[in-house]
Amino acid sequence: MSRHDAEDLIRRYYAAFNAGDADGMLALVTDDVEHRVNEGEPRHGRAAFADFCGHMGVSYRERLEDIVTFATADGARAAAEFTVHGTYLKTDPGLPEAHGQTYALPAGGFFDIRDGKIARITTFYNLADWVRQVSA
Fold it and tell me: What are the phi and psi torsion angles at 93 (to 5°)?
């Protein structure tokens, strides 16, 4: 896979995210995808990733903007930087109570790519910043 193909894959993944198309996101990951979130335990496999997507769709409404993608020359690894614009819809256990608060949060994603699909997703953002925004 080329650098261009890898960046296109990541752009399609985030386009599906922005469209609220969990099935579209799932179609772009390997069966054994590893999903590492900023806080919490890694998830392994498409089913665990699908559960995460379902939960996120209930608790948060998010749109990613200002997406910039990067990839290695061989297309095996990629990254993206973006701003998350969101609304906190339903309280997540251990987090502040949700009542429709909005937030804007710089974030990034890192990817391993295998056989034209995403094999690892690692997402980073500043949780303390998010908590501050939804607690204000």
Answer: -55, 135
Rounded-to-integer distance, Cα 108 and Cα 11, Å:
13
Q: What is the CATH number of domain 3-135?
A: 3.10.450.50
pLDDT tens-place string over residues 71-103: 999 999 999 999 999 999 999 888 999 999 999
What are the boundaries of each domain within the chain? 3-135
Q: Which pLDDT tens digit goes with each residue over 43-79?
A: 999 999 999 888 888 889 999 999 999 999 999 999 9
- Print the SS3 string covering 18-56: HCCCHHHHHCCEEEEEEEECCCCCCEECHHHHHHHHHHH
Residue 102, φ and ψ in degrees, nearest 5: -105, 160
